[in-house]
Inverse folding.
């Protein structure tokens, strides 16, 4: 069973700064099946990135994903006020989905 | 526009049962795999179950296997989750979600707003 570990648990930054969020898999996974979601309080998750690096429809280009094997990264190049939220990585494989525990991005 | 509307949540005693529904519109329902994902209060996301577009294949998280049953009625564009032998740890907001491409299972670009299930005496 694959475990996804996200770090840091909480990231405190200011608008305009760059955010780097990490997702580490317990074993090598296909980047085709690695995604990132954003969730704001009281809202459903929103797909940001799939296939490790492809932006979903309507996602601003300040969001980018990278990585392969066991290490994946979500980067927000220049934080906007609406970007402060919880971010989850997700993997699909062997007919099951796995989510990381989430990284809370908060305003410093 | 894709719309997913969950219903059926509520308060149930430990050991009880509940059936959740997810009414879908805006896409060809039978072409797409569907999933249930839950979120306990203040916690992260946990995948619960998935079903192929035809309904022929179903998949479950270990935490619910043998207690929950996913099904769908493609004539009614509705997804179901029958939950039996409910436990306190099943308390969560339950979301239904749709896959991106016909039969792809991944990713999950469309989510409902969720229905709350509370298991308590």
């Amino acid at each position: 069973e694959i475990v996804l570990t996200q770090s840091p648990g909480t990231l405190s930054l200011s608008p305009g700064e760059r955010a780097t969020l990490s997702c580490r898999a317990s074993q090598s996974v296909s980047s085709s099946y690695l995604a990132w979601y954003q969730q704001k309080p009281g809202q459903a998750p929103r797909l940001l990135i799939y296939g490790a690096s492809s932006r979903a429809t309507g996602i601003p280009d300040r969001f980018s994903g990278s990585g392969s094997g066991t290490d994946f990264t979500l980067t927000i190049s220049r934080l906007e006020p609406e970007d402060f939220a919880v971010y989850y990585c997700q993997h699909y494989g062997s007919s099951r989905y796995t989510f990381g525990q989430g990284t809370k991005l908060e305003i410093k | 526009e894709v719309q997913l509307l969950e219903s059926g949540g509520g308060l149930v005693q430990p050991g009880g049962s509940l059936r959740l529904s997810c009414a879908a519109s805006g896409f060809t329902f039978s072409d797409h795999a569907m999933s249930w994902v839950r979120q306990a209060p203040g916690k992260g996301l946990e995948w619960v179950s998935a079903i192929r577009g035809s309904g022929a294949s179903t998949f479950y998280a270990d935490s619910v296997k043998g207690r929950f049953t996913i099904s769908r009625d493609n004539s009614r564009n509705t997804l179901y989750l029958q939950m039996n032998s409910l436990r306190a740890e099943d308390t969560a907001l339950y979301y239904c979600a749709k896959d991106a491409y016909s039969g792809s299972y991944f990713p999950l670009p469309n989510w409902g707003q969720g229905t709350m299930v509370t298991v308590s005496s």
Notes: Chain A touches chain B through 22 residues (CB under 8 Å).
